[in-house]
Amino acid sequence: MSVTLPRSPISSLGLFIWSLTALFFLYEFFLRTFVGSLAHQIIPDLGLSAERFALIGSAYYLTQGLMQVPVGLLTDKFGVKVILVFACLVCAAATFLFAYSAGFMSAFVSRALMGFGSSFAFVCLLVVAAAWFPRRFFGFFVGLSQFIGTMGPLLAAGPLIAFMSEANLSWRSTLEIVGIAGVFLAILMLLFVKNKGRDPEDKYVVLKPSPELSLRLSQLLKNKQAWSVAAYSATVYASMALLGAIWGTEYLQVRGLSQSSAGNIISLSWLGYAAACPILGGLSDIAKRRKPILILCALLALFSTLGIIFIPTEHNWVYGLLFFSLGVAAAGQSLGFATIAEHVSPDSRASALGLNNGAIMLFSAMIPPITGYFINRNVGNEFGQFSVSDFTTGFMIMPILNLIALIVAWLFIDETFCKPQKEMIVLVKE
Predict the structure, then answer these.
(1) Which residues are CB-contacts of 405 (< 8 A; sequence separation ≥ 6)?
(2) What is the DSSP letter of 247?
(3) Is 169 helix (H, G, I), strand (E, B) or coil?
(4) Residue 392: which residues within 8 A CB-CB, separation 6 or more?
C-alpha cells in the first residue's frame, strides 16, 4: 500500500479535460436510453416484435456489462487519450449504423457496438479525475460526473422528442445528427486530452506488496457481502433500465398519453435519479448509515412499480410522481457502490466496483427480453400494436425484483456505518 501527499490545486487544463470526458459520459448515457423514447417510430419502421425490440435495447447493456473488467486493463495499457478517442468514434459509428439499419440484425449489432464504446466512459472519467485533481476533490468530481452523465437520458426523452417534432425530423435523421456530434467530440478529445503521469512531488511509503490478481479475485468471490450488495444494486436498478431506457414511453402512450407527454415523464424519472444520487449519498454520510437508505429505496421502488402497473389514471401528474419516485429509488444502486467498497479490502476495491457495475449492466440486459417475451405473447400484431394488458404480465417482474432487493437489503447486507470493514493500518509520512 502507498501513501500519497496532496497534489497541486486544480488546473484549468485538467478541468477542461475532465469536462470533455464528462460530456462523453453524457453522450454514452444518451445512447443508452434514446431507443426507448423512439420506440413508437422504430418498432414499425424495422418491423420488430416486442421480443426483438427488447433484445435491441438489451444488446447495449450486454456488451457494456461484459466489458467492465477489460476496460480498466485496456485503459492502463493504452492511456486515457487513445481510449477516449477510440471509444467515442466507435459510439458515433454505431449511431450511424443504427440510423441506417434496415432490420433487426443491423440494429442489434449497432446497439452492441454502442455498448462496447460506451463501456469506457465512466472508467475514463475516474482515471481523469484521479490524475488531474487533488485527492480531496475526487469524491466531489465523481458525484458531479454522475449528475452530468444523467443529463444524457433526460435529454434523450422529452427534449429529444420535442426537438424532432419542432424540426420535423425522422428518427433516422435525428440519429445522424447525434452521430456527427460524437465525431466532433472525438476530434476535441484528440486535440486537447492529455495523459498525465503521477506528479513528481508525490511521495510513497510502501507498506507491503499488493496480493496477486488471482488472490484478490479469490477473496472477492468468497465475500458474501460483496455478492449481496451486487445483487441489491442490480435488482433495485432493473426497473429503471426497463422503463427509463426501453418500454416506458411506449407504455405511457398505450395508457393514453401523447409521445411528447410520455417523453417528459421519462425525463422526470431520470431527473429524480440524477438528483437522488448525490442527495442520498450525502444523507447516508451524515447519518453514518447505509442500510436504512438501501431499504428505503427498495420499498420506494416496490410501491412505485406497483403504482405504475396497477393505478389507472388520466392525470399526467400521477404518472410524473410515480416515475420520479422510481428514479429516486433507482439511485439506491449508486449507494451500493459506496457500500460494496466498504465491505472489501482495499486491494479488491476496484474489482468489487467492477462486479457491482457488471451486475447492474447484465441484469439490465437480461430483464428486457424476458419482459418482451411476455408482452409479445399476447400481441396479435407483429409490429407492436400493444394494449395495457399486454404490458401487465411482463411488467410484474419489476415488483418481484424490487421485493428481492428489499429482502437482500434487510436480511443479507450488513451495516458498515460508513467505515471500511477490512481496515488496514496505514503509516502517513509527515
Answers:
(1) 231, 232, 235, 236, 297, 298, 301, 332
(2) I
(3) coil
(4) 309
Dist CA 400 CA 112 (whole Å): 28
Contact between 160 and 273 (Cβ < 8 Å): no
Q: What is the pTM of this model?
A: 0.82
Per-residue pLDDT of the chain (430 residues; tens, 9 = 90+): 444 444 457 788 989 999 999 999 999 999 999 999 999 999 999 999 888 999 999 999 999 888 877 887 787 788 889 999 999 999 999 999 999 999 999 999 999 999 999 999 987 887 788 788 876 676 567 667 878 888 999 999 999 999 999 999 999 999 999 999 999 999 999 999 988 754 544 444 444 455 565 666 677 778 899 999 999 999 999 999 999 989 999 999 999 999 999 999 999 999 999 888 888 888 888 888 999 999 999 999 999 999 999 998 878 999 999 999 999 999 999 888 888 888 988 767 767 777 888 889 889 989 999 998 888 876 654 555 788 888 998 999 999 999 999 999 999 999 999 888 876 544 455 5
> What residues have CB less than 8 Å from 326, skipping those under 6 apart?
239, 240, 243, 244, 269, 272, 300, 301, 304, 305, 308
Nearest to 308 by CA among 321, 298, 295: 321
Cα(116)–Cα(426) distance, integer angstroms:
38
- What are the Cα distances from residue 397, in Å, to 23, 306, 327, 391? 34, 10, 17, 11
> Distance between CA 7 and CA 138 in Å, rounded?
12
Q: What are the grid coordinates assigned to 88, written together?
A: 467515442
DSSP letter, residue 135: G
Query: What span, in angstroms and rounded, lies between the C-alpha atoms of 170 and 99?
Result: 10
Q: How far apart are the C-alpha atoms of 134 and 202, rounded to whole Å?
A: 11
Q: Which three cell numbers stand for residue 153?
A: 437520458
Other beta carbons within 10 angstroms of residue 172's beta carbon come to 16
How large is the C-alpha radius of gyration of the chain? 22
